[in-house]
Amino acid sequence: MRLLTSTLKPVIEVALNDSQQRDFVPSYTSRDRIRGIVSVTATYDTPFDELYVTFEGTTKTFVEKVSTAFPANGRTEAFHVFLRLIQPIDVGSLPEDKLLKAGQTYSIPFTFVVPEKLLPQSCTHSPANLKIHDLHLNLPPSLGDPLAASIGNILLDDMAPEMAVVSYAVKVRLFHGRNSSGKLKLITDTTRKLRIMPASAEQRPIPFPGGLKDDYRPRKEKEIKRG
Prior knowledge:
- This protein is mainly beta.
- It has helices at residues 2-5, 130-136, and strands at residues 11-16, 27-28, 33-41, 46-47, 50-65, 74-86, 99-100, 105-113, 164-178, 184-196.
């Protein structure tokens, strides 16, 4: 019986404290506060080392690889976390002995503020104009995720290309022990998806004293001849 119950993971739930708590995917914009409570309930006494509550923004893309050497085409995928805010956890919210008691629920409140901009080091480009660098730091909206574009249980198409996905979520991870490389081992985790629609003010035209180059081209013409 002990062997059977030891495979059961603690149950983690994320509940929001605003009027959108029952929405399938809540929506927020710049400077909005995302408040809620994380509840952790163990089915048996469970030791742990760390618990992290974060608000994360991620991008995912892929490129199809067409090859004549193999009958099947491959795909190269890339994943990047461009935003991660970590919630400080009060000492009294979790047991000091790092042991979750069976049947007991632990509550961890969290508050995140949707930022207007990313940190300056988020963009490593070297544009000819500093204004372009500033625009690159704008928070991207949720994109390419049918769940984030849905209304209730109706999935919507936001017309984003298949290879472009921008997602936001509140994530909770529970760790115990370390692997051979010294990294914390994940016990269990959960994710609460959010829809982020950043606000942006109307921008002034960008000056280009040194020419347009490749940073910004408002217009380009090309003659096409019919043979």
